[in-house]
UniProtKB/TrEMBL annotation, chain A:
SUPFAM superfamilies tied to this protein: P-loop containing nucleoside triphosphate hydrolases
Gene Ontology BP, a term: transmembrane transport
Pfam families the record matches: ABC_tran, oligo_HPY
Membrane topology classification: Peripheral membrane protein
Family: Belongs to the ABC transporter superfamily.
Residue stretches making up the ABC transporter domain: 20-270
Chief localisation class: membrane
Protein name: Oligopeptide transport system ATP-binding protein
From TrEMBL, chain B:
Primary localization class, coarse: membrane
Subcellular localization, as worded in the UniProt entry: Cell membrane
Protein name according to UniProt: Peptide/nickel transport system permease protein
Lineage top rank: taxon: Bacteria
Transcription regulation found in the keyword field: no
Length: 338, 318
């Protein structure tokens, strides 16, 4: 995608305020081989991804495993080196800031992790985990700190008496609440939720999702909600972006994406969602994709989806489809949808 | 444990005004009282601690109760068996064995513990740095390999030959040689610790809680102190307990070669080697210092085992 295409990148309607703008973001991991550890290639985990996130909205980011969803989230938070492109948060370019400036900006953006077991230090108690951001960024007295920790625990629905317990003493859902409380500690405006419910029981998923929604309403949070659960994204998201093999293939407001998906990959994904109504389920047409996902170290030429696309034709192998606007707020990268 | 539903009205907004009335909190559990409770429930650790304390008390206070000069020669009373006058008998020059073991214990324990601490410090530092900072990994691990490949005994001999006299004049004969021995043992035994710690750090730094700390903006120094070090405590504890034993034994080997402490200066290792020549005649001369070394090593091992469990909250809860 050229610079000209970047200008054509998805822009939000001018009325709503843009909180985060991602322009042509690429994250490539070099592959070193041989005796001299020479670089022989790169895993193109994220390639030329552009999108906006509006203040107060939830942008759902979906795609199958290994398509670069989590890497995108981590790159935005500057936890993974960015190969190319720009990340602009709240009008400030944070792509290249370092050191103390970056440390200060981290207060504005936080992350909720997938595996609540792995994201909490087993040697720290709940109060220690939740107060870590406060210790790093605020100078509070011991009493104020304690008070703030209790407030946060109330906000996520943890009993105050749990403050001295350790992560292993909690269930998955409670651990995720601890992770959410930690992310909220500094009043960030923007939170990347990296599959926050994927590791939880289905019965607990609903509780955590409701909690996230409630907190969003109360605190005016903006979420980048990464998930592979299409029905959960449909419930949560204002707009939905679909990724395949490191590229963004479609971005649309929720209802539009679920009712009229334009990209063949999105169509295939949505056809795989089971229907609760048995009569409609019986008539559901599944689009079965053949073959495997190609290696991101050696992606196909042209359109990356062409090797598995049921509608692929000659042009797909030659020309990379631009990520273009189809109708208001609906973007897709497919030659067929021109 | 079940998941708690969100209290409908009880939740206050984060960052909202102060709470109306804080419900009564259960008394703050002190972490160290938990640690002690777990440690005390480990029977081996308690026994180990008791034995180790006994050995320390014996070596420090014992000299006041059994106030015989360990250097006093009494050639007429040589090679005696246990008696009231000489509770552990005498050696071939008529020196009192108990007094020698007490005096030797002071040196051996001091050497063992200080050398262990030194090697632990160096090993942990190098292990953490090379595990955490990718750029340092290559050079530091090659440095470790270099030390592992060095033939230790010749190296020790050279170091001692070169620096013994210098340190003796600077710090006096006894503390000079003590510093030298501790330094030499510490500096040649940190490699195993460094490697084990590096391996653990490599695995730990990819864990999500370290990523979470980075996303909070915790600087590397505090990530290491707060998240990495407490989690590599177990392997460090194990190498520490093994290190004490190792240091005592290395010191004995050095003394045996005539390069450690002067020959009239008893240490457990020295007593053991001196006694080895008379094993057939007076086997108890080997048994007592050997027993002292074994008991120390064993008790320190058990203490380490108990401490490792007590410091791990996952085990502590059970």
């Amino acid at each position: 995608m050229s610079d000209a295409a970047a200008l054509d990148a998805p822009r939000a309607a001018p009325t709503a305020e843009t909180l985060l703008r991602v322009q042509n973001l690429s994250v490539h991991f070099p592959i070193h081989k041989g005796l001299l550890r020479r670089q022989v290639g790169a895993v193109q985990a994220v390639d030329e991804v552009s999108f906006d996130v509006l203040k107060g909205e939830t942008l759902g980011l979906v795609g199958e495993s290994g398509c670069g969803k989590s890497t995108t989230g981590r790159a935005i938070l500057r936890l993974t080196p960015i190969t190319q492109g720009r990340v602009i948060l709240d009008g400030e370019d944070i792509t290249h800031i370092e050191g103390e400036t970056l440390r200060q900006r981290r207060r504005k953006m936080q992350m909720i992790f997938q595996d609540p077991q792995a994201s909490l230090n087993p040697r720290m108690n709940v109060s220690g985990i939740i107060s870590e951001p406060l210790v790093e960024h605020r100078s509070l007295s011991r009493k104020q700190m304690q008070e703030r920790v209790y407030e946060l625990m109330d906000a996520v629905g943890l009993r105050r008496s749990f403050a001295n317990r350790y992560p292993h003493e909690f269930s998955g859902g409670q651990r995720q609440r601890i992770g959410i409380a930690r992310a909220l500690a500094l009043d960030p405006g923007f939170i990347v939720c990296d599959e926050p419910i994927a590791a939880l029981d289905v019965s607990i998923q609903a509780q955590v999702v409701n909690l996230l929604e409630e907190l969003q309403q109360r605190l005016g949070l903006t979420y980048l909600f990464i998930s592979h659960d299409l029905s959960m994204v449909r419930h949560m998201a204002t707009r939905v972006a679909v990724m395949y093999l490191g590229r963004m293939v479609e971005l649309a407001p929720r209802e539009k994406l679920y009712s009229v998906p334009r990209h063949p990959y999105t169509q295939a994904l949505l056809s795989a969602v089971p229907e609760p109504d048995p009569r409609r389920e019986a008539t559901r047409q599944r689009i079965i994709l053949t073959g495997d996902v190609p290696s991101p170290a050696n992606p196909p030429s042209g359109c990356r989806f062409r090797t598995r696309c049921p509608h692929a034709f000659d042009r797909c192998a030659v020309e990379t489809p631009a990520f273009r606007k189809l109708s208001d707020g609906h973007f897709a990268a497919c030659h067929l949808s021109e | 444990m079940t998941d708690q539903p969100i209290p409908a009205g009880g939740a206050t907004p984060a960052g909202g005004p102060a709470l109306v009335a804080a419900p009564a909190m259960p008394k703050h559990r002190s972490q160290w009282s938990d640690v002690w409770r777990q440690f005390a429930s480990h029977r081996g650790a308690l026994a180990g601690m008791a034995v180790f304390l006994f050995i320390i008390l014996l070596c420090t206070l014992g000299a006041f109760i059994h106030d015989v000069d360990p250097q006093k020669l009494d050639i007429r009373a040589k090679n005696q068996l246990m008696s009231w006058e000489h509770p552990l008998g005498t050696d071939n020059l008529g020196r009192d064995m108990l007094a020698q073991i007490i005096a030797g214990g002071q040196v051996s324990l001091a050497v063992g513990v200080t050398a262990m601490l030194l090697s632990l410090l160096v090993g942990t530092l190098i292990g953490v740095l090379s595990g955490y900072f990718r750029r340092l990994d290559g050079p530091l691990m090659r440095f470790t390999d270099l030390f592992l490949a060095l033939p230790l005994l010749p190296l020790l001999l050279v170091i001692i030959m070169l620096f013994r006299d210098m340190l003796r004049t600077a710090f006096g004969p006894e503390s000079g040689i003590f510093i030298l021995i501790v330094f030499v043992i510490g500096i040649t035994s940190w490699m195993q610790t460094a490697r084990i710690v590096r391996g653990d750090v490599l695995a730990l730094k990819e864990r999500e809680f370290v990523l979470a700390a980075k996303s909070i903006g915790t600087p590397s120094r505090r990530i290491i102190l707060r998240h990495i070090l407490p989690n590599v405590l177990s392997p460090i504890m194990v190498s520490a307990t093994l290190g004490v034993a190792n240091a005592i034994i290395t010191e004995s080997a050095l003394s045996f070669l005539g390069l450690g402490f002067p020959s009239d200066f008893p240490t457990w290792g020295r007593l053991l080697y001196d006694g080895a020549n008379f094993m057939t005649l007076t086997p108890d001369r080997v048994i007592w210092p050997g027993l002292a070394i074994s008991l120390t090593v064993l008790s320190v091992n058990y203490i380490g085992d108990g401490l490792r469990d007590a410091l791990d909250p996952r085990i502590r809860g059970r």
